[in-house]
Amino acid sequence: MTPSCCPTEADGLPSAHSSAARHAQRWLALYGIAVVGVTFVHDPLALAGMLGLALLVCGSTRWGVLRRALLAVLAFNLSVSLGYVAVSLWQGSFRPMYLVLVNLRVMLLVFLGFWFVSRVNVLQALSFSPTLSFVATLAVGQVTVFSRVLRDFRLAFVSRNLGRPRWSDRARNASAQATHLLDKAVASAAEASLAMRSRGCFDD
């Protein structure tokens, strides 16, 4: 006999959960198809049109998702673009449309990724695979930990500066953050590796 306090299938809870998981998995499949499809598009106008369509479909959250995507790719795209410009000009093979193509493709892929994460429960989408669910759970836990660390650094920095901080102070704070996060990432990876090895995940 099933205790009255435990949910049963008649209560609709397991079926609702499986329905939500199937819905998330369909979104994951569509996202995967979109990502693969974007890599086959080599026309900057087509990529720009696809980005505009994604912005249109995204709804009221489009500007927030776009802002996050821009901030995420700004440093990487800028450094890669400047490197390409310098090398291609030196070699005499600079192609501006290629530069536009690469930046549009990266921007579209990152935008789709942030949009997917904002709409879909990743753990539900990966529930069909215990291994992927485990990896996703570890990743979510690490993201939560690092987000808290960054928030603590930001609050501590604000509390130590009564006025507007100088750029040199910001640079030193960013350097301290990066060093701490790198050390923490290495320590967390070592602990996770030891825990997984002790459970037989690795066969050395």
Main attributes?
single chain, 204 residues, mainly alpha, 7 helices, globular
Assign a percent range to the helix content: over 70%
Distance from N terminus to C terminus (CA atoms, Å) equals 46 Å
Poorly predicted runs: 1-13
- Classify the beta-strand content into a percent band: under 5%
Number of strands: 0
Net shape = globular
How many helices does DSSP assign? 7
Radius of gyration: 22 Å
How many strands, which pairing sense, and closed or not: the largest β-sheet?
Answer: none
- Average pLDDT across residues? 82
Order of helices and strands: HHHHHHH
Strand-pairing-aware structural class:
mainly alpha
Report what the structure shows.
- The chain is mainly α and 204 residues long.
- The protein is built from seven helices and no strands.
- The N and C termini lie far apart (46 Å).
- The relative contact order is 0.08.
Topology overview:
Layout: H1 13-39, H2 44-58, H3 62-91, H4 96-119, H5 122-125, H6 130-159, H7 167-198
Helix pairs in contact: 1-4, 2-4, 3-4, 6-7
Question: Could you write a compact summary of the structure shown?
Answer:
The protein has 204 residues and is mainly α. The protein contains 7 helices and no strands. The longest helix has 32 residues, at 167-198.
